[in-house]
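A reminder from the course coordinator: this example appears on the midterm review sheet, so study it carefully.

Given structure:
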């Protein structure tokens, strides 16, 4: 397994610039300021309709943004952003989500769930299931077809939350999800896996950073095996929506992503696995920066559409 040359150059630039900083030393607020200042280059393609919406939830309203690439989208994908449950925003994910909507023909709803450490587990879980249920019940209010399939997806911590939402929707009977998109998901808090040992210092996500994220989200070690925190620890993974699991070869989370995909398959779910051996964690956000990441995003969008009901 060899790091893609474009990816290698990008990682070397990060290392030379001393980024990302030690989040544990600067704290969550400064980490967010750093992430917002760095941003992602480009603005993504213009699409049919983009609108901001307010989403109600048990913990209060949340800001959302709806991307509709054409008058008759394939589905509504509620997208849960990454950032270790601590970072991330609508603005930071705007370019790649525009690209994904444009390529897939799917409408996307991005929103800002509450972040740790100010709002620790299970607040993000509550926000995410509330948002997905609200979206499924208010398609007409979003000016979408009332019968449009609804799916959930996200990357990293958002992949974790997407897997959890799929579990909750199954267990509680709503909403009826057509698919789940899990991009290099965090599925357990175990820092001894083979990929954690192999990719301990790989940028842009190091093992130390991931440990810090878990400390912000769930400082109580006893809660981390809760299936709503670590879906890999769920006893029963049967009866879940069709899944596309996307993995990066240079990623501390690789082993747990592989393990979750395997358990989904063992439980007789429909599972497609895409593995990008030459890419690092975070490549989904780099679609305008690195052509190799842009091509990966396009393939992910294409394969995700294959999971959806015929239009």
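Designed residues:
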């Amino acid at each position: 397994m060899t790091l893609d040359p474009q990816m290698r150059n990008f990682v070397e630039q990060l290392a030379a610039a001393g980024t990302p900083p030690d989040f544990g030393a600067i704290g969550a607020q400064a980490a967010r300021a750093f992430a917002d200042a760095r941003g992602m280059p480009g603005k993504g393609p213009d699409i049919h309709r983009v609108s901001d919406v307010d989403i109600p939830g048990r913990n209060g309203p949340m800001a959302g943004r709806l991307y509709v690439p054409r008058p008759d989208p394939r589905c509504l994908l509620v997208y849960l952003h990454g950032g270790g449950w601590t970072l991330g925003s609508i603005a930071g994910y705007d370019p790649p989500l525009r690209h994904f909507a444009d390529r897939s023909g799917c409408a996307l709803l991005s929103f800002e769930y509450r972040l740790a450490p100010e709002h620790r587990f299970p607040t993000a879980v509550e926000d995410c299931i509330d948002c997905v249920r609200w979206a499924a019940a208010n398609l007409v209010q979003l000016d979408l077809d009332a019968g449009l399939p609804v799916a959930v997806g996200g990357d990293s911590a958002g992949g974790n939350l997407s897997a959890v939402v799929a579990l909750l929707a199954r267990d509680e009977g709503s909403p009826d999800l057509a698919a789940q998109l899990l991009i290099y998901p965090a599925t357990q808090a175990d820092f001894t896996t083979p990929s954690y040992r192999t990719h301990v210092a790989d940028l842009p996500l190091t093992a130390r950073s991931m440990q810090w994220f878990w400390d912000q989200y769930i400082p109580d070690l006893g809660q981390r095996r809760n299936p709503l925190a670590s879906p890999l620890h769920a006893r029963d993974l049967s009866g879940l929506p069709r899944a596309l699991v996307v993995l990066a070869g240079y990623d501390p989370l690789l082993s747990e992503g592989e393990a979750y995909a395997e358990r989904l398959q063992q439980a007789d779910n429909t599972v497609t696995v895409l593995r990008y051996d030459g890419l690092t964690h975070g490549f989904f956000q780099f679609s305008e920066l690195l052509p190799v990441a842009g091509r990966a995003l396009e393939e992910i969008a294409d394969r995700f559409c294959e999971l959806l009901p015929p239009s």
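The chain has a mean pLDDT of 96. The CA atoms of residues 66 and 109 lie 5 Å apart.
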